[in-house]
Inverse folding.
């Protein structure tokens, strides 16, 4: 991905993203959501997931969950497409992805239009028994997701909100 955020990092093997950060100002809304997911052309084949096919095709109840939300990357079509690279995707339980995780993205969207926001996030892998996508996609199933958002209020004081989800 390009822009003011860093690329996700990848562990040695299997290729799994584990943390990210980005800085955002007012939403420019200059790019629509891509209709698909893509391998990342900026990393080697070994560091990409094996396929872009949905996780639900392997195990029902799982989505392709964005690490850096697609809705945050709207400054350009290139940036938005980058948010759909599989290096920015990990298995997420559907109700979590479309529920409380999406709520964190809504909060970010509100705050970014008031003041610049700085976001850090990550995923932890602690339970091998639920790694349903290792053979099909080459990625483990995250067991914990976390995010921290920093902004400032009108007086310049730091305001921080954070989440840690099992």
């Amino acid at each position: 991905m390009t822009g003011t955020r860093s690329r996700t990092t990848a562990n040695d093997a299997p290729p799994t993203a584990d943390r990210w950060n980005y800085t955002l100002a007012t939403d420019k809304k200059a790019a629509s959501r891509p209709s698909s997911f893509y391998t990342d052309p900026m990393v080697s084949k070994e560091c990409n997931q094996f396929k872009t096919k949905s996780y639900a095709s392997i195990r029902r109840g799982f989505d392709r969950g964005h690490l850096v939300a697609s809705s945050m990357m709207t400054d350009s079509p290139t940036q938005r497409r980058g948010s759909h690279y599989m290096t920015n995707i990990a298995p997420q339980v559907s109700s979590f992805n479309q529920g409380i995780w999406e709520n964190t993205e809504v909060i970010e969207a509100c705050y970014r239009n008031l003041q610049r926001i700085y976001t850090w996030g990550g995923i932890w892998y602690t339970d091998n028994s639920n790694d349903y996508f290792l053979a099909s996609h080459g990625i483990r199933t995250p067991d914990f997701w976390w995010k921290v958002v920093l902004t400032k209020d009108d007086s310049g004081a730091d305001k921080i909100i954070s989440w840690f989800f099992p």
Summary: Residues 1-8 have pLDDT under 50 and may be disordered. The chain has four helices and six strands. The domain at 19-165 is CATH 3.40.570.10 (Extracellular Endonuclease; Chain A). The beta strands are 19-24, 62-66, 89-93, 117-124, 144-152, 158-165.
